[in-house]
Amino acid sequence: MTAPATPPSPLLTVPEVAALLRVSRMTVYRQINSGELPCVKVGRSFRVPRQVVRDILGDACPEGL
């Protein structure tokens, strides 16, 4: 018996965003600090809404994102 699949989180971590956009983590942090990339601060870390990454990628968005 398998456990039910949990829906993906609506927020992505900085390393997840960097991997999806194929840039470095530092580039993501720079975009967050300059205000180019909207984010939510959770404790001491930043989270980027999944929809923001979908909008950036447009047609190049991978399945399941």
Kindly estimate the percentage of residues that lie in beta strands according to DSSP: 15-25%
* Average of per-residue pLDDT values: 90
For the CA atoms, what is the radius of gyration?
13 Å
Largest sheet: 3 strands, antiparallel
Total number of strands: 3
Written as H for each helix and E for each strand, in order along the chain, the element string is: EHHEEH
How would you sum up this structure, described in words?
- There is one protein chain.
- By secondary structure, the chain is α+β, with helices and mostly antiparallel strands.
- It has one domain (11-59).
- The protein is 40% helix and 17% strand.
- The protein has 3 helices and 3 strands.
- A hairpin with a 2-residue loop joins strand 2 and strand 3 (45-49).
- Helix 1 (14-21) crosses helix 2.
- 11% of the residues are buried.
